[in-house]
Amino acid sequence: MSEALDTARVANWLAGHLPGFDGPVEAEKFSGGQSNPTYLLKTPVRNYVLRRKPPGVLLKSAHAVEREFRVQKALAGTDVPVARMHVLCEDEEVIGSPFYIMDAVPGRTFDAPSLPGLEPPARDAIIDEMNRVLAAIHDVDLEATGLTDYGPSGNYYRRQIDRWTAQYHATATEDLPEMEALIVWLDAHVPPEDGQRCLVHGDYRLDNLLFAPDGTQCVAVLDWELSTIGHPYADLAAVIMQWSMPATAEGRGLAGVDRAALGLWSDEAFIARYCERRGIAPIKGFNFYLAFTYFRMAAILQGVKKRAMDGNASDPARGLALGQYVPEFASAGLRTAKDET
């Protein structure tokens, strides 16, 4: 099934559901994403963004645009910057899969965490803003936003390990002993509940943040597909995991980079400032949370690879390229698991 957007059907539906809408519509697909296909909708009056589920057969609970719409709508007016949500279409008959419409927010994204082209003070400010927004997400008042039921109760890591293990096995294309060993280790080292239950983004990294066109303020957090109610250290560890990757276009990490010379933060500084912002004690046993994020990313990329092989990926060529990193994430996770420092 093609991901080509039927703009005539979109315009017809919006005419009856989006106040102030006036067509015709031109659509331009954003490149690079491996999750839910996203399009810039241009109309004579204003621009919008449409985000849809990908076509084809999907894993259960995957690509839930309905949840993305709900959480971002709930966060309006909080300290977490999000685009304004307009309408959700759950009728698959309109364009072949559910979709939602949100504001097109002017801004810029940064794929490389080394932030090339910026001066050290700007780099410092952007990382500090990244830290502030992460703390704000985890401090969201679940009752005030109506999100108390946005995720199940119980141990977040237990259910996440079970979920991603099942999804990994459902999409596996080859035997990977390191991944199986990592799953066994995580199963045996799930930390006990510590009372922290909050909103988590699930894929928090620099390139999922939109910054002001000419400043360092975050104007929108993007890609809420994996968000739920869970434990905050998974998001925090995801940032540190991303920075451990190679400093390449695909790796999008900081491995081997002289961070101090560029005005970038160390892992320790980012974690310490986060704890300070949230008023919590230093984190013990961080290797578990970091190993978990390697495991989850390996499982996610395996799903991307499988969708690319099946012809359902948003960008098949890039999906296959990203799928080659699954063994590296599994190995890194296993090394981290054994690091008790």
From TrEMBL:
Endoplasmic reticulum is among the record's keywords: no
Pfam families on file: APH (PF01636)
Aminoglycoside phosphotransferase domain: residues covered: 27-250
GO-annotated molecular function: transferase activity
UniProt KW keywords: Transferase
CDD domains, A to Z: ACAD10_11_N-like
The EC number(s) this enzyme carries: 2.7.1.-
Signal peptide: none
Listed InterPro entries: ACAD10-like, ACAD10_11_N, Aminoglycoside_PTrfase, Kinase-like_dom_sf
Top-level taxonomic group: Bacteria
Name of the protein this chain belongs to: Putative aminoglycoside phosphotransferase
Natural source organism: Roseovarius tolerans
